[in-house]
Protein backbone atom coordinates (compact mmCIF):
# COMPACT_ATOMS: atom_id res chain seq x y z
CA UNK A 1 0.00 0.00 0.00
CA UNK A 2 2.80 2.39 0.91
CA UNK A 3 4.63 1.54 -2.31
CA UNK A 4 1.49 2.15 -4.37
CA UNK A 5 0.85 5.48 -2.68
CA UNK A 6 4.48 6.54 -3.16
CA UNK A 7 4.40 5.61 -6.86
CA UNK A 8 1.05 7.33 -7.35
CA UNK A 9 2.11 10.56 -5.62
CA UNK A 10 5.37 10.64 -7.61
CA UNK A 11 3.56 10.11 -10.91
CA UNK A 12 0.94 12.71 -9.98
CA UNK A 13 3.62 15.29 -9.20
CA UNK A 14 5.64 14.50 -12.33
CA UNK A 15 2.59 14.67 -14.62
CA UNK A 16 1.98 18.22 -13.39
CA UNK A 17 5.46 19.67 -13.08
CA UNK A 18 8.11 17.53 -14.80
CA UNK A 19 8.56 18.05 -18.57
CA UNK A 20 11.17 15.28 -18.77
CA UNK A 21 8.51 12.86 -17.52
CA UNK A 22 6.69 13.08 -20.87
CA UNK A 23 9.91 12.91 -22.88
CA UNK A 24 10.63 9.54 -21.28
CA UNK A 25 7.16 8.16 -22.00
CA UNK A 26 8.56 5.14 -23.91
CA UNK A 27 9.89 3.74 -20.62
CA UNK A 28 6.35 3.18 -19.32
CA UNK A 29 4.29 0.14 -20.18
CA UNK A 30 0.87 0.54 -21.78
CA UNK A 31 -0.93 -0.33 -18.53
CA UNK A 32 0.94 2.06 -16.24
CA UNK A 33 -0.88 5.24 -17.31
CA UNK A 34 -4.24 3.41 -17.29
CA UNK A 35 -3.68 2.21 -13.73
CA UNK A 36 -2.59 5.71 -12.76
CA UNK A 37 -5.63 7.47 -14.21
CA UNK A 38 -7.97 4.91 -12.58
CA UNK A 39 -6.20 5.51 -9.26
CA UNK A 40 -6.65 9.27 -9.66
CA UNK A 41 -10.36 8.99 -10.46
CA UNK A 42 -10.81 6.46 -7.64
CA UNK A 43 -9.09 8.74 -5.12
CA UNK A 44 -11.21 11.77 -6.09
CA UNK A 45 -14.44 9.76 -5.93
CA UNK A 46 -13.43 8.34 -2.56
CA UNK A 47 -12.86 11.86 -1.22
CA UNK A 48 -16.28 12.94 -2.53
CA UNK A 49 -18.00 9.94 -0.93
CA UNK A 50 -16.24 10.46 2.41
CA UNK A 51 -17.08 14.19 2.46
CA UNK A 52 -20.71 13.50 1.57
CA UNK A 53 -20.84 10.68 4.12
CA UNK A 54 -19.35 12.95 6.77
CA UNK A 55 -22.05 15.56 6.11
CA UNK A 56 -24.74 12.88 6.38
CA UNK A 57 -23.26 11.58 9.64
CA UNK A 58 -23.15 15.07 11.16
CA UNK A 59 -26.74 15.69 10.12
CA UNK A 60 -27.88 12.14 10.90
CA UNK A 61 -30.74 13.22 13.18
CA UNK A 62 -32.17 15.52 10.46
CA UNK A 63 -31.84 12.72 7.90
CA UNK A 64 -33.72 10.31 10.17
CA UNK A 65 -36.41 12.93 10.79
CA UNK A 66 -36.77 13.30 7.03
CA UNK A 67 -37.13 9.53 6.59
CA UNK A 68 -39.73 9.44 9.36
CA UNK A 69 -41.89 12.08 7.66
CA UNK A 70 -41.18 11.04 4.05
CA UNK A 71 -44.30 8.92 3.48
CA UNK A 72 -46.81 11.41 4.91
CA UNK A 73 -45.23 14.48 3.31
CA UNK A 74 -44.87 12.76 -0.07
CA UNK A 75 -48.55 11.83 -0.18
CA UNK A 76 -49.48 15.47 0.53
CA UNK A 77 -47.71 16.53 -2.67
CA UNK A 78 -49.93 14.63 -5.11
CA UNK A 79 -53.21 16.51 -5.77
CA UNK A 80 -56.52 14.76 -5.29
CA UNK A 81 -58.00 13.16 -8.44
CA UNK A 82 -54.90 14.17 -10.44
CA UNK A 83 -54.08 11.89 -13.39
CA UNK A 84 -51.22 11.76 -15.89
CA UNK A 85 -51.76 9.97 -19.19
CA UNK A 86 -49.16 8.92 -21.75
CA UNK A 87 -50.62 7.78 -25.05
CA UNK A 88 -49.56 7.97 -28.70
CA UNK A 89 -46.20 9.49 -27.69
CA UNK A 90 -47.91 12.38 -25.88
CA UNK A 91 -48.32 13.39 -22.25
CA UNK A 92 -51.57 14.86 -20.97
CA UNK A 93 -53.12 15.65 -17.58
CA UNK A 94 -56.69 16.16 -16.39
CA UNK A 95 -55.97 19.77 -15.36
CA UNK A 96 -55.73 23.04 -17.22
CA UNK A 97 -52.10 23.72 -18.15
CA UNK A 98 -49.63 25.11 -17.34
CA UNK A 99 -50.13 23.39 -13.99
CA UNK A 100 -47.56 23.33 -11.15
CA UNK A 101 -47.10 21.20 -8.05
CA UNK A 102 -45.11 22.51 -5.09
CA UNK A 103 -43.33 20.85 -2.18
CA UNK A 104 -44.34 21.56 1.42
CA UNK A 105 -42.11 24.37 2.72
CA UNK A 106 -40.81 22.19 5.59
CA UNK A 107 -40.01 19.13 3.44
CA UNK A 108 -37.25 19.56 0.82
CA UNK A 109 -35.82 22.77 -0.61
CA UNK A 110 -34.95 22.05 -4.24
CA UNK A 111 -34.12 25.70 -4.97
CA UNK A 112 -36.61 25.57 -7.87
CA UNK A 113 -39.72 27.64 -8.54
CA UNK A 114 -41.90 24.50 -8.39
CA UNK A 115 -41.40 20.79 -7.91
CA UNK A 116 -43.16 19.98 -11.22
CA UNK A 117 -44.63 22.15 -13.96
CA UNK A 118 -46.83 20.56 -16.63
CA UNK A 119 -46.99 22.46 -19.91
CA UNK A 120 -48.56 19.75 -22.03
CA UNK A 121 -49.97 22.18 -24.60
CA UNK A 122 -46.41 22.71 -25.79
CA UNK A 123 -44.01 20.23 -27.39
CA UNK A 124 -40.90 22.25 -26.49
CA UNK A 125 -39.55 23.96 -23.39
CA UNK A 126 -40.98 27.37 -22.63
CA UNK A 127 -39.25 28.31 -19.38
CA UNK A 128 -38.76 31.90 -18.28
CA UNK A 129 -37.22 33.01 -15.01
CA UNK A 130 -36.51 30.48 -12.27
CA UNK A 131 -37.07 26.96 -13.61
CA UNK A 132 -39.02 24.15 -11.93
CA UNK A 133 -37.18 21.04 -10.78
CA UNK A 134 -39.18 18.90 -13.24
CA UNK A 135 -40.67 20.31 -16.44
CA UNK A 136 -43.13 18.25 -18.50
CA UNK A 137 -44.21 19.04 -22.06
CA UNK A 138 -46.44 16.94 -24.29
CA UNK A 139 -43.36 15.12 -25.61
CA UNK A 140 -40.94 14.74 -22.72
CA UNK A 141 -40.03 15.20 -19.06
CA UNK A 142 -36.94 17.22 -18.12
CA UNK A 143 -35.13 17.20 -14.79
CA UNK A 144 -33.47 20.60 -14.42
CA UNK A 145 -30.69 21.87 -12.16
CA UNK A 146 -32.25 25.05 -10.66
CA UNK A 147 -28.84 26.67 -10.11
CA UNK A 148 -27.36 26.18 -13.59
CA UNK A 149 -30.70 25.82 -15.43
CA UNK A 150 -29.18 22.90 -17.31
CA UNK A 151 -31.14 19.74 -18.08
CA UNK A 152 -29.75 16.82 -16.06
CA UNK A 153 -31.63 14.16 -17.98
CA UNK A 154 -34.86 13.66 -19.89
CA UNK A 155 -37.47 10.97 -20.50
CA UNK A 156 -39.38 10.95 -23.80
CA UNK A 157 -43.05 10.06 -24.05
CA UNK A 158 -42.07 7.83 -26.97
CA UNK A 159 -40.05 5.70 -24.52
CA UNK A 160 -43.32 4.22 -23.24
CA UNK A 161 -44.29 1.23 -25.39
CA UNK A 162 -47.86 1.05 -24.10
CA UNK A 163 -50.45 3.65 -23.03
CA UNK A 164 -49.82 4.54 -19.39
CA UNK A 165 -51.96 6.25 -16.77
CA UNK A 166 -50.62 7.43 -13.40
CA UNK A 167 -53.13 8.02 -10.60
CA UNK A 168 -52.78 8.78 -6.90
CA UNK A 169 -53.10 5.05 -6.21
CA UNK A 170 -50.08 4.31 -8.44
CA UNK A 171 -48.17 7.18 -6.85
CA UNK A 172 -48.96 5.90 -3.35
CA UNK A 173 -47.65 2.41 -4.20
CA UNK A 174 -44.43 3.94 -5.57
CA UNK A 175 -43.94 6.09 -2.46
CA UNK A 176 -44.57 3.04 -0.25
CA UNK A 177 -41.76 1.16 -1.98
CA UNK A 178 -39.35 4.10 -1.58
CA UNK A 179 -40.38 4.49 2.06
CA UNK A 180 -39.59 0.81 2.72
CA UNK A 181 -36.11 1.26 1.24
CA UNK A 182 -35.51 4.40 3.34
CA UNK A 183 -36.65 2.61 6.49
CA UNK A 184 -34.21 -0.23 5.76
CA UNK A 185 -31.39 2.27 5.22
CA UNK A 186 -32.27 3.92 8.55
CA UNK A 187 -32.00 0.59 10.37
CA UNK A 188 -28.84 -0.55 8.58
CA UNK A 189 -27.16 2.80 7.88
CA UNK A 190 -23.70 1.67 9.03
CA UNK A 191 -23.72 -1.29 6.61
CA UNK A 192 -25.08 0.89 3.79
CA UNK A 193 -22.43 3.54 4.43
CA UNK A 194 -19.61 0.97 4.30
CA UNK A 195 -20.97 -0.58 1.09
CA UNK A 196 -21.29 2.84 -0.57
CA UNK A 197 -17.76 3.88 0.45
CA UNK A 198 -16.34 0.66 -1.00
CA UNK A 199 -18.40 0.24 -4.17
CA UNK A 200 -19.01 3.79 -5.46
CA UNK A 201 -15.32 4.75 -5.94
CA UNK A 202 -14.49 1.37 -7.52
CA UNK A 203 -17.49 1.03 -9.85
CA UNK A 204 -17.73 4.76 -10.57
CA UNK A 205 -13.98 4.99 -11.11
CA UNK A 206 -14.04 2.03 -13.50
CA UNK A 207 -16.83 3.42 -15.69
CA UNK A 208 -15.42 6.96 -15.64
CA UNK A 209 -11.96 5.69 -16.59
CA UNK A 210 -13.34 3.62 -19.47
CA UNK A 211 -15.25 6.65 -20.74
CA UNK A 212 -12.17 8.85 -20.56
CA UNK A 213 -10.02 6.28 -22.35
CA UNK A 214 -12.50 5.84 -25.20
CA UNK A 215 -12.92 9.60 -25.64
CA UNK A 216 -9.16 10.09 -25.52
CA UNK A 217 -8.51 7.32 -28.02
CA UNK A 218 -10.71 9.01 -30.61
CA UNK A 219 -8.99 12.34 -30.03
CA UNK A 220 -5.50 10.82 -30.19
CA UNK A 221 -6.37 9.03 -33.43
CA UNK A 222 -7.07 12.40 -35.05
CA UNK A 223 -3.82 13.87 -33.69
CA UNK A 224 -1.88 10.81 -34.79
CA UNK A 225 -3.16 11.07 -38.37
CA UNK A 226 -2.21 14.75 -38.43
CA UNK A 227 1.26 13.81 -37.17
CA UNK A 228 1.58 11.24 -39.96
CA UNK A 229 0.66 13.85 -42.57
CA UNK A 230 3.54 15.98 -41.33
CA UNK A 231 5.72 12.81 -41.20
CA UNK A 232 6.46 13.12 -37.49
CA UNK A 233 8.20 10.05 -36.11
CA UNK A 234 5.99 9.21 -33.18
CA UNK A 235 4.10 6.05 -32.23
CA UNK A 236 0.38 6.05 -31.56
CA UNK A 237 0.81 4.21 -28.25
CA UNK A 238 3.27 6.86 -27.02
CA UNK A 239 0.90 9.71 -27.89
CA UNK A 240 -1.90 7.82 -26.14
CA UNK A 241 0.16 7.29 -22.98
CA UNK A 242 1.18 10.95 -22.87
CA UNK A 243 -2.43 12.02 -23.32
CA UNK A 244 -3.59 9.79 -20.46
CA UNK A 245 -1.07 11.34 -18.08
CA UNK A 246 -2.07 14.74 -19.46
CA UNK A 247 -5.61 14.16 -18.18
CA UNK A 248 -4.44 14.93 -14.64
CA UNK A 249 -5.03 18.69 -14.87
CA UNK A 250 -8.46 18.52 -16.59
CA UNK A 251 -9.70 15.92 -14.10
CA UNK A 252 -8.55 17.94 -11.08
CA UNK A 253 -9.93 21.15 -12.59
CA UNK A 254 -13.37 19.72 -13.41
CA UNK A 255 -13.57 18.07 -9.98
CA UNK A 256 -13.05 21.40 -8.23
CA UNK A 257 -15.56 23.11 -10.52
CA UNK A 258 -18.07 20.36 -9.77
CA UNK A 259 -17.45 20.67 -6.03
CA UNK A 260 -18.35 24.36 -6.14
CA UNK A 261 -21.25 23.87 -8.57
CA UNK A 262 -19.53 25.76 -11.39
CA UNK A 263 -19.49 23.08 -14.09
Strand and helix map with partners:
Elements: H1 2-17, H2 19-23, H3 31-58, H4 60-77, E1 84-87, E2 90-93, E3 99-101, E4 116-119, E5 134-137, E6 140-144, E7 151-156, E8 164-166, H5 168-187, H6 189-229, H7 236-246, H8 248-259
Parallel strand pairs: 4-5
Antiparallel strand pairs: 1-2, 1-8, 3-4, 5-6, 6-7
Helix pairs in contact: 3-6, 3-7, 3-8, 4-5, 6-7
Task: Walk me through this protein's architecture.
The mean pLDDT is 85. A 5-stranded mixed beta sheet has the order 3-4-5-6-7, with no helix packed on it. A 3-stranded antiparallel beta sheet has the order 2-1-8. The chain is α+β, with helices and mostly antiparallel strands and 263 residues long. The protein is built from 8 helices and 8 strands. It is 57% helix and 13% strand. Helix 3 runs parallel beside helix 7 and helix 6 crosses helix 7. The chain folds into 2 domains: 146 residues, no CATH class; 84 residues, no CATH class.
What characteristics describe this protein?
13% strand, three-stranded antiparallel sheet, five-stranded mixed sheet, 8 strands, 57% helix, 2 domains, alpha+beta, single chain, 263 residues
Amino acid sequence: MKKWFRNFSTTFRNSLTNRDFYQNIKKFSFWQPIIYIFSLVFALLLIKVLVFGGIILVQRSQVFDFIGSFYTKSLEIYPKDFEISIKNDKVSINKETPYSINLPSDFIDTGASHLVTFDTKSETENISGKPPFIYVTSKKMLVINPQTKNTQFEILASDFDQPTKITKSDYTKFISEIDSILKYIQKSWVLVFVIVVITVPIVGGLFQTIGLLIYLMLLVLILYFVAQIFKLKIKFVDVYKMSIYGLTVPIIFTTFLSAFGLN
